[in-house]
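Review form for a predicted model. The reviewer records the input and the model, then writes brief findings.
Reviewer: anonymous (R2)
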Amino acid sequence: MRDETVKGVRGFKFAARSGGIKKSGKLDLGLIWSEVPARCAGVFTTNKVVAAPVIVTRGRVAGGSCQAILVNSGNANACTGEGGLRDALRCGELAADALGISPELVAVSSTGVIGVSLPMEKFETQVPPLAVELLADRAETVAQAIMTTDAFPKMAAAHGEAGGRPYTLLGLAKGAGMIHPNMATMLAFVVTDARVAPQLLETALRQGVDTSFNSITVDGDTSTNDMVLLLANGCAENPEIGADTPEGELFADRLASVLLELAKMIVRDGEGATKLVEVRVQGATDAAAARLVARSIATSNLVKTAFFGEDANWGRIIAAAGYSGADIDPQKVDIFFNDIPVARHGLGTGKELEEKATAVLKTAEFTVTVDLHLGGGEAVYYTSDLTYEYVKINAAYRT
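Model under review:
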């Protein structure tokens, strides 16, 4: 539910600039600000190696309120010790001083090279002007400022209504490589002017992340800085949206649509990727088993290279399903590329249908469906192909 017409969300302003953190001189510093303190929720990396900004922001978001997000690209401020933690706190202080708010209301976020200290002299001079440059229609500049190996900025929006009052959700994200659940090498910030109950913010975000950012893979790697933040400032002046209500279901649906659109953009922009592939598993013993199979197929390098080679090699797919750890009866497995059956009951369907499936693989987006015929479990993953360009990009990442 992408909406290119959205220019802003009531009560939120954005700014970005080139702070000299990236060698390229491109935008690398962004600020998101709410005119009033917003209710917030967050989901963070599951990596045991956690970057300093994640440590700081995770603690602040737990308090339930946030008014600003300061984010930089080009430097992850990860594996930088006590000095990195001090730097993350100082970044929050700089933003808070510029905005006239408490540092506890500032979330800090970073992405980029691991193991390098932040160039704090640049933050000291570049963060204060951001507060002066805030405007309602500059969200895209922040989406640009958080890019690393991304080929394009990622934004998605959706609209809803509660108590006769319309509201908007706007999401920004970055991510192209090191993408793999749970959470990927990605940042995502979603802002809404809706007034939403804290419990609903938390549950809707976690459910939405589970079916979006936790259901994508590019290369099987995750990082140290991943976070998704959701801020709701209530400036739409709607009656509070509560959990277990029709309005709450609508809000959760709209949020999920924004998160899924952003997640698909990340896979579509996978480093060197030429394909966006939906892996749909059905007929598993239960949903957990379906997820195991879908994840196994979506993360298989052999499957992904076959996608790149536009080879309808269904044998790699059934093999990946077989080693997933889920219950599989190979004599019951059907496999489709879009609506073309390449395998029925675990056996190939012949050269003619395989040639039709090969034509499907030549398109930029397609679906692989695997029906296990064992039960009602279903799951969906999104993956990309694995290309020569992926190796080139990551071999030269620090140069």
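Findings: Residues 276-395 form a domain with the Ubiquitin-like (UB roll) fold (CATH 3.10.20.340).
Further findings: The longest helix spans residues 246-268.
Recommendation: see findings above.
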